[in-house]
Amino acid sequence: MSIWLDQRAKVIVQGMTGSEGRKHTQRMIGAGTRIVGGVTPGKGGQAVTFEEDPVPVFNSVLEAKVATGANTSVVFVPAAYTRQAVIDAVDAALDLVVVITEGVPVKDTAEFVAYAAASGATRLLGPNCPGLISPGKSNVGIIPPTISGPGRIGLVSKSGTLTYQMMFELRDIGFSTAVGIGGDPVNGSTHIDALAAFEADPETDAIVLIGEIGGDAEERAAAYIADHVSKPVVGYVAGFTAPVGKTMGHAGAIVTGSAGTARAKKAALEASGVRVGRTPSETAALMREVIAGLR
Fold it and tell me: CA 67: distance to chain centroid?
């Protein structure tokens, strides 16, 4: 099975008429995603042609939903307009909104994350994330669709590139769903949200959790695993060589003293029964051992 995304998803692309929106819409369609429309205010009534098929453009998310039955959106709009784009999608009561845009001000993110949570209807993923893919079913975002097929592993990751690497390393086993939650200080869905969904998915047999330095998301995930997750979890934490006090990569990746270090996160995960690799390849090897033990 899969979590949050399957072949029934009817997807609109907010910002489809821009260069990034066009490029990734083409890739998503090529992966079998059901793209039913795009949204660009002021360009309603136009269409963009992909593989000889015109995809209609609408002025608002609600207009697109009414016309197409869309239940999912992926956001490629510039950072300055992301807050309003997400609010429009939440107001239209879409099931899932995936925010790819990076560089969104934290204040804006905090506002639209709270807005989505208060709606009680919309799951928000991102911002600054690669999206999610349920191989063989649907791909919403920028994850390369050809690096892995469907299988038994669930993956949740802060890092886009490490998502791709782990999927490639375990491509012969395959994935139920791979979820990139993004590495900003505030995001719409967490490791814990994905862990709960994978735990409930009867065809996800094991879980890979990828974290990185900064914050305490991995420590909170470790506590959740200890109390609520029965399936085997293998982890990797990026940033073992990061110097204390220096911001590294994602906006949320900053270490102060012992808080937020890769070593502290590794220790917390291992205390909860998670096997943690020192490198992505070692982590993949640990997952192979887990899968072999389940057969």
Answer: 27
> Do the beta carbons of residue 73 and residue 12 sit within 8 Å?
yes
Report if pTM > 0.90.
Answer: yes
Which band of pLDDT confidence, cut at 50, 70 and 90, is reported for residue 177?
very high
Is the residue at 197 inside a domain? yes
pLDDT at 51: 85
27 three-class SS: helix
- With CA atoms as reference, report the closest residue to 279 among 240, 230, 221, 223: 240
Please state, as a whole number, how many other Cβ atoms lie within 10 Å of the Cβ of residue 270.
Answer: 13
CA dist 126 and 156 (Å) reads: 12
Average pLDDT over the chain, rounded to whole? Answer: 93
**Candidates 24, 191, 228, 250; catalytic one:** 250
Domain total of the chain: 2
Query: If 0-12 CB within 10 Å is exposed, 13-18 middle and 19+ buried, where does residue 256 land?
Result: exposed
Asked whether residue 48 is domain-assigned, the answer is: yes
Q: Tell me, what's the pLDDT at 1?
A: 66
Contact of 233 with 181, CB cutoff 8 Å: no
Cα–Cα distance for residue pair 7/148, rounded to 1 Å: 17
Q: Is 178 exposed, middle or buried (0-12, 13-18, 19+ CB in 10 A)?
A: buried
Is-catalytic flag, 250?
Answer: yes
Q: What is the 3-state secondary structure (H, E, C) of 156-186?
A: EECCHHHHHHHHHHCCCCCEEEEEECCCCCC
- CATH code at position 264: 3.40.50.261
Quote the pLDDT of residue 295.
Answer: 72
* SS3 call for 70: coil
